[in-house]
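Teaching note: in complex prediction, the entire set of molecules is handled at once rather than each chain in isolation. The prompt given to students was simply: 'Predict the structure of this complex.' The entities are:
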Amino acid sequence: MRGITKVFPRVVANRDVDLSVEPGEIHALIGENGAGKSTLMKILYGLQAPDAGTVRLFGAPLHPHTPAAAIRAGLGMVHQHFMLLPPLTVAENVVLGQEPARLGVFLDRDRAEAELLALSERYRLSVDPRARVESLSVGQEQRVEILKVLYRGARVLILDEPTAVLTPPEVEELYAILRALKAEGKTVLFISHKLAEVMAVTDRVTVMRRGEVAGRVNTRDTSREELARLMVGRPVLFAVEKPPARPGAIALRVQGLSALGHRELPAVRDVSFDALAGEILGIAGVEGNGQTELIEVLTGLREATAGSVELAGQEILRPGRFRKTLRARPNDLLRLGMGHVPEDRHKRGLVLDYSVADNLVLGRHRLREFNGFLLRRGGALLAHARERIASFDIRPPDPHVPARALSGGNQQKIVVARELARDPRVLLACQPTRGVDIGAIESIHRRLIEERERGKSILLVSAELSEILSLADRIAVMYGGRIVGTLDRIDANEERLGQLMTGGAH
Amino acid sequence: MNLLADLWHILWSVETLTGTIRLSIPLLLAALGGVFSERSGVVNIALEGIMLNAAFATVLATHALTHPAVGEVPGGPFADPDLLVFGMWSGVAAGMAAGVLTALIHAVVTVTAKADQIVSGVGVNLLAIGSTQFLCFKFFGSTSNSPTIPAIRPWDLGDFGQSFLGQVLFGYSPLVYLAFGVLALAHVVLFRTTFGLRLQAVGEHPRAADTLGVSVGRMRYAGVLLSGALAGLGGAYLTSDVAQFTQNMTAGRGYIALAAMILGKWTPGGALGACLLFAFAQKFQFALRGAPSPLLQSIPSQFTDMIPYLLTILVLAGLVGRARAPAALGKPYEASEA
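The expected output is the structure of the full assembly:
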């Protein structure tokens, strides 16, 4: 790819980007969110046309500029959000679009399954061709995605943030798969912002920052620190400065809590824990092991089937109206001081089309100070917004722009700024730095520790082990809806947590 | 005892059995059309309008091709009794063509222009009511009904045709057998061909299909136009039953077909079962009206008329359990998100 430039209405996504990948190497493309990695890959794959520049694959220009042409040229994309059809079988998913057929029209399932088995043996990617995709684990789904591109004869595989959804053992398996692919002569383009992975598995690295190439290095000759500096443009502190915790009274007590999840299956099973004032309690676990449902119960978004939750000594679960279920009421939560930074800020954290100022006051919008007799008090709202924007360094510092227009990191800062404005006793911080650039991660982490120092109780739910390990004072691990172990930070390490997270040793 | 005997007779007579089959056919064809459209991700409540337009087109074409010579006016090209059959089948073809054209409107609006699929469907249905009435007046001088046309008759099987088996198995218009053929074909196409796999793919996860080089737009057009052809055949069948066009003669069958398709969990076989159920409800309603028992006759027809529709509502309200719709159903596909 040479001189790639792509301009969107508001931003330049790529400016004069060159990327060259040698056959048979594992090449990493790294950069913060919004650095232009995804746009560059969409252009490479033919999903979007560049405004300037050329794409050449094995020496030949990509023409026409479509995914079909890119696939023909030997390119295969393993998307970050899997492109699978849950009700169909593995074999059907793999062959879709290039199906083996009898008489030209009838799908030849036997041949599809045979070809799939041959591929999976060659690359040691074991899957059951007849299993329905909806019954697979995330790691298995990823294998199906890789098989999909191999089936199409891909010589170059693009993996977009492939480890985001995997457990630590699954990540190790993925590394092995990548090395096997390389041994078979395939080229791998590995998109990531996790430096540990990049160091572990790649040969060369191209770093992007703000739409431009910030550096090209051989993995052998570089370090995490150098890569981070290239990504962010300044040195980054990996360790979070943190004085020892001074835990106080019980702020949140959960006992015997159970709840149903999707399809009415048990998702939270008999969970008990105490969160103390002045400490950060980390909830670790692979996503989908009940953390989401647990938080939903604590915030009144989901009904519990059994158990009790005491916030500041008061029971907040009340009987539901129709069924024999228990549910927390938003008014109790507000009154007793529960703050919530939801894991999906777009769905639950923000009203994207509202202005920054309005988003900053959500939940407290009924307070006297913001309302006159009939109308809202615009002046008070703006003053409040300006104070929050300045205090959290939200950019651009304009209370009037819609939240949609801000970057992920700044959107997250809005959510954190709003929740902390309520001065909550307990803060539920769920994946607080997901999809957030390194600069904002630093600032959000610093805020969480400040709040802890002020005697707040913080429940940190994160799928990122490094985040849990750097912030939490105690760590509870969830697996299969249960808390399978609670460790003091001092006793915890990645290996121990990884075991617990996969239901290994208890 | 009279009452029970009456009910028994209504429920288990040759009449009820054959009537149920006959009434199920237009529902089945439209529901199969719905399966193809919705499996591709396009909600098709336009089935109603498609059937209505097709019914009118069938009558218009059949009439034009088969009307007898009157005075100075020469007869249609197939007016000769020996050639009538060509005229009638041409009418059916015209009905299907009208169905496809009507569906094309829905496809252009929903797939190309990415408009709301429900609103488009309502528009098509209202347009069909108005346009068929207008054209009916234009060609036949009456907004309410057309002259009668020759209808496709069951095969003449002599005495055997009058026996129980003869009536139950062979007492129908050839269109009925065609419909069952279409049912089998629909199942094969959907679940055994590459086309069917791709159709399901664009209804389930259009972006995934797109990244694999399957054209979402083309597959959705195929789904919607196929539903036009099938519902059009259903509309043509309606006219062959009563041998004329009457104002708004579909009377909600498109909607009932849609309900049947959902009850049948978006599968051809399931649609058949559901259509038979709804058709039985309709037949039951007609039979109650003609029942000899005074008590049954005393039920106001307004109530008996409700039976099929009430059943539809109950079914859709989830009495039978939720079915899983194609995941991308109702959502226009945007090729790239910024």
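Point out the following to students. The mean pLDDT of chain B is 88. The radius of gyration of chain B is 21 Å.
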